[in-house]
Amino acid sequence: MAKAPVLTPQAEDFPRWYQDLISKAELADNGPGRGTMVIRPYGYGIWERMQQEMDARIKATGTRNAYFPLFIPQSYLTREAEHVEGFAPELAVVTHGGGKQLEEPLVVRPTSETIINEYFSKWIQSYRDLPLLLNQWANVVRWEMRPRVFLRTTEFLWQEGHTAHATYEDARDFAARIHHEVYADFMENVLAIDTVLGIKSPAERFAGAINTRTLEGMMGDGKALQMGTSHELGQNFARAFDTRFLAADGERDLVWQTSWGASTRMVGGLIMSHGDDNGLRVPPRLAPTQAVVLAIKDDPAVLAKVREIGAALTAAGIRTEVDDRTDTPFGRRAVDWELKGVPVRVEIGPRDVAADTAMLARRIAGGKEPVAIEALPKLLPGLLDEDQELLLRQSRERRESRTSDVRTIEEAVEAATAGGWARIPWADLGPEGEARLAQDAVSVRCLVAEDGSVPESVDTPGNIAVVGRAY
Amino acid sequence: MAKAPVLTPQAEDFPRWYQDLISKAELADNGPGRGTMVIRPYGYGIWERMQQEMDARIKATGTRNAYFPLFIPQSYLTREAEHVEGFAPELAVVTHGGGKQLEEPLVVRPTSETIINEYFSKWIQSYRDLPLLLNQWANVVRWEMRPRVFLRTTEFLWQEGHTAHATYEDARDFAARIHHEVYADFMENVLAIDTVLGIKSPAERFAGAINTRTLEGMMGDGKALQMGTSHELGQNFARAFDTRFLAADGERDLVWQTSWGASTRMVGGLIMSHGDDNGLRVPPRLAPTQAVVLAIKDDPAVLAKVREIGAALTAAGIRTEVDDRTDTPFGRRAVDWELKGVPVRVEIGPRDVAADTAMLARRIAGGKEPVAIEALPKLLPGLLDEDQELLLRQSRERRESRTSDVRTIEEAVEAATAGGWARIPWADLGPEGEARLAQDAVSVRCLVAEDGSVPESVDTPGNIAVVGRAY
After folding, report:
1. Do the chains contact at A67 and B45, CB–CB below 8 Å?
2. CA distance B165 to chain A (A)
3. A37–chain B Cβ distance below 8 A for any pair
4. Residue B224, CA distances (Å) to B261, B310, B445 in order
5. What are the pLDDT digits (tens) for B131-143?
6. Could you tell me which residue ranges the Aminoacyl-transfer RNA synthetases class-II family profile domain spans (chains A, B) (predicted)?
7. Confidence of residue A422 (pLDDT cuts 50, 70, 90)
8. Which of A171, B37, B183, B381 has the fewest beta carbons under 10 Å from its own?
9. Are A281 and A364 in contact (CB under 8 A)?
10. B449 torsion bin: left (phi>0), alpha (psi -120 to 50), beta (else)
11. Residues 243-282, chain B: which have Cβ within 8 Å of A?
């Protein structure tokens, strides 16, 4: 008799599989307020590892962390016209504080360009103060009409970088550097998610930006997820907040700026990229727990052995957890670790202790075989590297096999509807074609250059639009 | 001619000295909303180091991080009567979201006991789920009538731990463990701040707690600062949220809980404990930058040498920064580093390069003398240890020399007014005496046992009240 599946199968109902996985792997719960979420310890542990890896890359660019207030005076938001138009429908507003109605309502930050520019205007005096490179890790709030855990939540956690530069070129190059050295490097080498790097069409650009670089990942159902964006803000916010510097030539010039962010939405991307019908699969370089050592039953020799192996693996630099909760049936614990996607399980029972072997189960490459216990610390790092590469390869192969080159809007819609992406010359599509795609819920995810690189601008000849359905 | 002091001297005006230091050392700025702050990169770097050290200690207790929503339905707050009474005057309320008035207003969390209990009620089924040990790093909002940067701000950053246990004893012991192993250990061994560990009088207890443990530090002006608290919540929140577990005996019992927090207020405590008329002094174990290597002038040999020394110190495990901004006068940079309180400055000019020596300036122990460059990597760790010990000793000596044993309320007020603390038997003071002290703005900081340890309870015979003025 076949066992009932732990999760709704992906092929049956992908959105429901996603919700099932988040619930059963104990990643998150829905919050009490509309569209909010509670990130449970295992989900938060994954986010903490994302933060560590991203933060190191951000700091390597010379950027330093700071913290700006959650509440932004409503008047700040209105200073940059496109920006307020983009965010006004999504704002949460504090009208009362300390038991009294406030004179000016405070907006809960949806993003921090405005309040940060207010301070940049105070801190930046001369060209010696530039570039000014700041980042903050924070919560932000955007009222969501169709919330979905991790993907679109009213409150989410993110990092938002904000920088000011003396020239257009310096700002542009820095936005590109973040795109490549922070986001692309992290997503490829840690998340093991293949992404297409490109620029947004004018319709999809960040409200207030002159150019937005993006990374688009293809999920298991062929839909796209925007994984991170890096914006050139030009002088739009500098003009609105009069952020100027004394240039070497004695002029008081407006600064050129960038902003860039990636959020807890990446956890959703991780699930939808690497998850399967048995649960999550976490890339080893990201995994808070790379190996779990399980005691099959409550036996003193077994318990001593799992602790000994746990210590040996930890000493070998492997993030290891020992599961000695023998009051819960072994089978249920094994299924739980599979659901959570821990790359390697080392299972120990009395016979294994006697034989000095362990049963080694691999969540990503698959398979289960006995190995000598003493060989584990040297064996595992290589297996984890293989798993890491395998996930990236599977992600890349999915994107390549489900992307087709087309010439007409009808073909593009057809490809997207079938669960994939289409590449169509931007010259053949244009803003009018983009509007027609929207009628079928298909959008331009990004524009790439003819050779697949990130184009100079929207108008660069030969640009190709990558289009698909998106989260 | 004496130079004008960089800061208002402490002896002249301590609060103004504090504000001056925060501004000139670029730790923080006032935010635009009432009582908010902008934490600048240097101040945030100090907070990040606090987070790292605290987080490691929190995790060592078996506690894991999670994240709960910023917005709490107003109805949750009202379920625990004392809790809502304590926090109602301080709340910020969101009444509008996504362009519409909300059906139920949302409170911006002032602390998270209520929303966390809602989820504990879902997650806790049986005794096997206990203890449940969670912590979150988050921003919270409490409307402040008399705000002061880092000490009392409308929004602040903190960690809040929340745990649930099967028995009163287990909860009590865990609250005590956090008090000692996380907070006391961190404050003594990292912050180098001497604190008195005790319990709060009933009047000073957290709203909703049955017992509050506290750590009180004496600031440079003899006033007290509450540096962290660990609460036993009894079954108060469990009752309000019906948080029950199936006990081994088959009964559905209410859990016993704790909560505990420490915040960015500790940055204020750091400044007021260790700062002097020349600026901040950061304990080496905390310092984001332990040593700075300064190029005195723009000379190729000098610049090469500072980078070489910087690399050697970094390789020796010392958190090192190289200051080669020779377009700013050397004297100004030296004053800046002194203001920022970096423990060690290594200054290099052309003559030093020729002689293979560096001028070594010590911010904490004081003094400036030439040392052989090659000796630096081996020399500095020992000096930094000395500095760390010296700061703790100075902090302890201040508290000891400014604390007096008294028998009357008048003597206690006199001691507090003179800038110190008084110790008075709690049996002689009691709640009535406490109310009389309050008329002179003097409060009971904590109760300690006769032998100086943390007492079992408020009613333990022989308890001594430590009283003083406080921030």
Report:
1. no
2. 18
3. yes
4. 18, 39, 7
5. 999 999 999 999 9
6. 34-283
7. very high
8. B381
9. yes
10. beta
11. none
Q: How confident is the model at residue B1 (pLDDT cuts 50, 70, 90)?
A: very low
Q: Name beta bridge partners: B291.
A: B320, B344
Query: 């009163």: which residue's tokens?
Result: B168
Q: Do A92 and B71 touch (CB under 8 A)?
A: yes
Report the half-sphere exposure of B178 (CA within 13 A, side-chain side): 31
Whether A147 and A154 have beta carbons less than 8 Å apart is answered as yes
* B320/B293 Cα distance (integer angstroms): 7
Burial (CB count <10 Å: 0-12, 13-18, 19+), residue B246? middle
Give all domains of chain B, ordered by start, each with its CATH number: 14-274 (3.30.930.10), 291-384 (3.40.50.800), 403-468 (3.30.110)
Is the pLDDT score of B5 beyond 90?
A: no
Residue to test with chain A: of B38, B150, B246, B298, most A Cβ within 10 A: B38
Report helix, strand or coil for B213: strand
Q: Per residue, what are the HEC states of A382-428?
A: HHHHHHHHHHHHHHHHHHHHCEEECCCHHHHHHHHHCCCEEEEEHHH
Say which DSSP state A148 is in.
B
A454 DSSP 8-state letter? -
Q: Band the pLDDT of B3: cuts 50, 70, 90.
A: low
**pLDDT tens per residue across span B194-245:** 999 999 999 999 989 999 999 999 999 999 999 999 999 999 999 999 999 9
**CA B292, CA B286: separation in Å to the nearest integer?**
15
Q: Predicted confidence band at A4 (pLDDT cuts at 50, 70, 90)?
A: confident
How high is the pLDDT of residue B33? 79
Q: Which chain A residues are closer than 8 Å to B65 by Cβ?
A: 41, 44-45, 48
| A317-345 pLDDT tens trace | 999 999 999 999 999 999 999 999 999 99
Q: Single out the residue of B76, B220, B239 nearest to residue B164, CA to CA.
A: B239
Residue type, B269: G
Closest CB to A66: pick one of B40, B138, B141.
B40
> Is residue A57 a contact partner of residue A186, using CB atoms and an 8 Å limit?
yes
A336 CB within 8 Å of a chain B CB: no
**pLDDT for position B370:** 97
CA nearest to A468, candidates A425, A388, A407, A404? A404
Confidence band of A244 (pLDDT split at 50, 70, 90): very high
Q: What is the pLDDT of residue A3?
A: 66
Q: What residues in B contact A106, CB-CB < 8 Å?
A: 33, 92
> What is the pLDDT, as a whole number, of residue B88?
87
CA angle A328, A332, A333 (to 5 degrees): 70
Strands of B334-426 (E only): list them: 344-348, 357-362, 368-372, 403-405, 421-425
How would residue A409 be classed by pLDDT, with cut points 50, 70 and 90?
very high
DSSP helix/strand/coil, B372: strand
CA distances from A195 to A180, A463, B423 (A): 11, 18, 65
Rounded to whole angstroms, how far apart are CA atoms B165 and A124? 52
Average pLDDT, chain A: 96
DSSP B407-452: SSHHHHHHHHHTTSEEEEEHHHHHHHHHHHHHHTT-EEEEEE-TTS
B137 residue type, one letter: W
What DSSP assignment string belongs to A342-354? -SEEEEE-HHHHH
Tell me the angle at which helices A376-401 and A265-274 cross, rounded to the nearest 10 degrees. Answer: 90
| B2: pLDDT strictly greater than 70 | no
Question: Is the pLDDT reported for residue A140 higher than 60?
Answer: yes
Q: Does A69 touch chain B (CB under 8 A)?
A: yes
